[in-house]
């Protein structure tokens, strides 16, 4: 479990609902039989005259009249046109997904989408106030604090963020709210703006306390999903009580002492969700006080209860049961006497708590958003939640797939078959192996989908034909790759699509992602040749280079690839062909050195030229470490010999074939000129590699050669400090032997730059570190130089304490 607290702390805090505590196997009536009140005159006398929550709604006495009339429906459903228009604009402009999460406060409306976008509107004038754009992970839940100054955002990937409406900035970003692999189904503010209740897609409930200046992040498990998956949370009684609603039970938990104070069973049909809402009402007894009433429903039954405090005990008293003529899928208690309910047919009802259904409106034109994807774990790639599985009606997947094929709903059939094969659909039939059955239908489905694809459109614009091709070709590729039916992809799909120029181009665009993921298995050389020429014709050089290093070299036209890569300076491709086709690892190194030699003296380098140098440094690091570039692994025999070959190339005195007559150590000198800091980082990173751990003193030699080179160059404070920092790190690691003369000379040179040193703090720290690990330095000379520099306080104090303070 993801938490800051220890496992022992969390286990101690769990609400253990075992057989000794859980509700006995009895009905709700039996559990509450001794607490049900008869609404007699004595009870009613204790209620507030103005509200009479437990009696009847306020209404005047009927007046006899001969005339009759019909009142307008109390339900008024209207579209928030401005908000709807802005949502469509965002979706059309950059496909930010469809609305799937909503939160409403007294001042604002927040809407979250399936692609991670959150839009916050002013409630009064529907003006867009803020937009929060995430990394594409779907928003699963939202909640405002009471002051409507903060918005909590939960994501399907398990991340939680808080957004300040005052500053327009994200205040907190917490990635370990729930267990790994679970999404956040619901998040609620708990009284404090730093405390939250979170429900994950595994049915577990957590209390999250955000960090402050004096307190770290704290997460504790309030309820474990192994006791029964919770599907809904509700804060009640001024945020003192947390109601947990599972598919079979209702739990009330006190957040003050983390104690279970009430539990009861829920009855109702398994294919309808349990529902809960509450109201705060005033009850008149000896003195006026406010209490919480709540309604809990499932199917067509709604029960009303209220909380009654007697001394230190809490009683839950049921005072009314309401039966409806339809099944509910959502419910909201809007006023003491009225509920708004959505039925299974997506109709909205107004329910009088005494009279029952008093108004109904059809909202078939409104596209309701469901949280099915969150329960299924689609956002995180998780398994189907047992909660959703419990609520779903059982059906035969084989019959469903066959029915889709018979009705020629090819796209739907392919998607359903892929969900079965990848395990997203649970096998509920015992007749056969469902995955094997779906796999056997893939060739037929691919042929049918291919026929649908090449048939095109009867009429329309070219843009519509492009959309048609993209939709179906992407699905064809996905079906073949997911099922590893590459024979279908190459011999059937591509052979058909290559006959049309447009469909062929879209096919190549669609396999880009498959190539980047390294999932294009054993492609035919003809397809690779066409694919590479397509990328060059589209000037998509980045994808071309990425494809070269991911497609087996024996499938490529080596002459064409090398010519193209050299022409466009795509040296990842050059290195790959050298390595894989010729087993040559030094050739590309020397070729890049030759190209970089022409650029290193330029005052300003382009991004492309800088990238070339960075690739060279990364290639050197991989070779010295015995790893393949840019990814993968080397054959064992090459991994053993390659580091020494590259080392000898780097420290060669005259360069390639001894042709450099004017400059000594040309390759090391070139790397220092290009980017000394990154080159020193490469040496430090590789200092633990086998090539430098031998008794031959190779690391010592290259460090000494570098010192000779920088001593012969124009003196630069930054260069000497960077080099001295590298030496200091290696001495602390005991990777090199201390040469006292060289170190004394280095310290003297570094301190001689005086106040012109930009990184005086780094220089001083390195000098002190060296003095602590190296004995025999000329410390008095160092002290005299350090005292000339007012910034070098640490050096002076270190040496003064050594020589003048008693030990």
Automatic annotation (TrEMBL):
InterPro entries attached to this UniProt entry: Vps41/Vps8, Vps8_central_dom, WD40/YVTN_repeat-like_dom_sf, WD40_repeat_dom_sf
GO biological process, one term: protein targeting to vacuole
Family: Belongs to the VPS8 family.
Protein name: Vacuolar protein sorting-associated protein 8 central domain-containing protein
Pfam families reported for this sequence: Beta-prop_VPS8, TPR_Vps8
Listed PANTHER family: VACUOLAR PROTEIN SORTING VPS41, VACUOLAR PROTEIN SORTING-ASSOCIATED PROTEIN 8 HOMOLOG
A cellular component term, taken from the record's GO annotations: HOPS complex
Superkingdom of this protein's organism: Eukaryota
Domain called Vacuolar protein sorting-associated protein 8 central: residue spans: 506-683
């Amino acid at each position: 479990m993801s938490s800051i607290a220890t496992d022992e702390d969390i286990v101690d805090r769990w609400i253990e609902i075992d057989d000794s505590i859980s509700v006995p196997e009895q009905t709700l009536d039996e559990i509450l039989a001794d607490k049900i009140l008869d609404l007699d005159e004595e009870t009613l006398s204790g209620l507030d005259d103005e509200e009479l929550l437990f009696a009847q709604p306020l209404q005047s006495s009927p007046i006899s009249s001969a005339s009759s009339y019909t009142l307008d429906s109390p339900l008024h459903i209207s579209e928030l046109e401005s908000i709807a228009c802005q949502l469509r604009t965002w979706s059309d402009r950059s496909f930010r997904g469809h609305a799937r999460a909503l939160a409403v406060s007294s001042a604002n409306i927040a809407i979250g989408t399936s692609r991670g976008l959150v839009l916050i509107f002013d409630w009064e004038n529907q003006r867009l106030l803020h937009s929060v754009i995430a990394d594409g992970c779907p928003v699963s839940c939202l909640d405002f604090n009471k002051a409507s100054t903060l918005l909590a955002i939960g994501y399907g990937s398990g991340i939680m963020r808080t957004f300040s409406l005052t500053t327009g900035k994200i205040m907190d970003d917490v990635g370990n709210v729930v267990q790994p692999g679970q999404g956040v189904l619901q998040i609620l503010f708990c009284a404090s703006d730093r405390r939250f209740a979170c429900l994950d897609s595994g049915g577990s409930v957590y209390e999250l306390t955000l960090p402050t200046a004096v307190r770290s992040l704290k997460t504790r498990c309030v309820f474990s999903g192994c006791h029964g998956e919770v599907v809904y949370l509700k804060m009640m009684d001024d945020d003192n009580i947390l109601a947990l609603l599972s598919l079979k039970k209702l739990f009330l938990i006190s957040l003050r002492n983390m104690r279970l104070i009430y539990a009861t069973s829920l009855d109702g049909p398994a294919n309808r969700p349990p529902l809960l809402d509450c109201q705060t009402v005033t009850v008149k007894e000896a003195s006026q006080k406010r209490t919480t009433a709540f309604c809990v429903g499932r199917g067509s039954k709604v029960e009303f209860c209220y909380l009654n405090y007697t001394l230190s005990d809490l009683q839950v008293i049921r005072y009314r049961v309401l039966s409806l003529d339809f099944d509910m899928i959502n419910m909201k208690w809007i006023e003491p006497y009225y509920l708004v309910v959505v039925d299974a047919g997506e109709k909205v009802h107004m329910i009088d708590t005494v009279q029952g259904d008093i108004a109904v409106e059809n909202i078939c034109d409104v596209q309701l958003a469901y949280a099915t994807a969150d329960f299924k774990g689609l956002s995180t790639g998780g398994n189907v939640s047992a909660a959703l599985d419990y609520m779903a009606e059982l059906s035969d997947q084989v019959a469903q797939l066959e029915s889709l094929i018979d009705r020629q709903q090819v796209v739907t059939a392919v998607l359903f078959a892929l969900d079965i094969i990848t395990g997203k659909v649970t096998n509920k039939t015992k007749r056969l192996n469902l995955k094997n059955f779906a796999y056997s239908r893939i060739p037929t489905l691919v042929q049918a989908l291919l026929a649908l694809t090449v048939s095109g459109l009867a009429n329309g614009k070219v843009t519509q034909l492009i959309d048609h091709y993209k939709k179906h070709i992407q699905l064809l590729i996905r079906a073949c790759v997911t099922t590893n039916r590459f024979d279908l992809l190459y011999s059937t799909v591509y052979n058909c699509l290559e006959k049309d120029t447009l469909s062929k181009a879209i096919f190549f665009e669609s396999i880009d992602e498959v190539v980047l993921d390294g999932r294009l298995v054993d492609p035919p050389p003809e397809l690779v040749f066409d694919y590479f020429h397509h990328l060059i014709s589209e000037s998509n050089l980045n994808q071309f280079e990425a494809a070269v290093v991911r497609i087996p070299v024996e499938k490529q036209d080596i002459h064409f690839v090398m010519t193209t890569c050299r022409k466009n300076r795509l040296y990842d491709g050059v290195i790959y062909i050298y390595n894989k086709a010729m087993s040559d690892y030094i050739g590309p190194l020397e070729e890049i050195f030759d190209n970089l030699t022409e650029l290193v003296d330029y005052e300003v380098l382009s991004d492309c030229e800088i990238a070339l140098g960075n690739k060279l440094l990364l290639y050197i690091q991989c070779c010295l470490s015995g790893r393949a570039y840019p990814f993968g692994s080397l054959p064992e025999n090459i991994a053993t010999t390659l580091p020494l070959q590259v080392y000898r190339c780097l420290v060669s005195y005259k360069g390639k074939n001894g042709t450099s007559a004017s400059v000594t150590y040309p390759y090391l000198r070139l790397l220092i000129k290009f980017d000394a800091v990154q080159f020193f980082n490469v040496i430090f990173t590789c200092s633990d590699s086998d090539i430098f751990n031998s008794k031959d003193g190779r690391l010592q030699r290259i460090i000494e050669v570098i010192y000779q080179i920088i001593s012969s160059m124009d003196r630069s404070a930054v260069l000497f400090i960077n080099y001295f920092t590298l030496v200091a790190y290696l001495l602390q690691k005991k990777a090199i032997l201390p040469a006292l003369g060289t170190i004394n000379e280095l310290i003297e040179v570094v301190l001689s730059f005086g106040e012109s040193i930009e990184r005086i703090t780094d220089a001083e720290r390195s000098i002190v570190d060296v003095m602590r690990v190296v004995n025999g330095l000329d410390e008095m000379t160092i002290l005299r130089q350090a005292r000339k520099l007012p910034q070098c306080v640490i050096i002076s104090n270190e040496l003064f304490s050594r020589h003048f303070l008693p030990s």
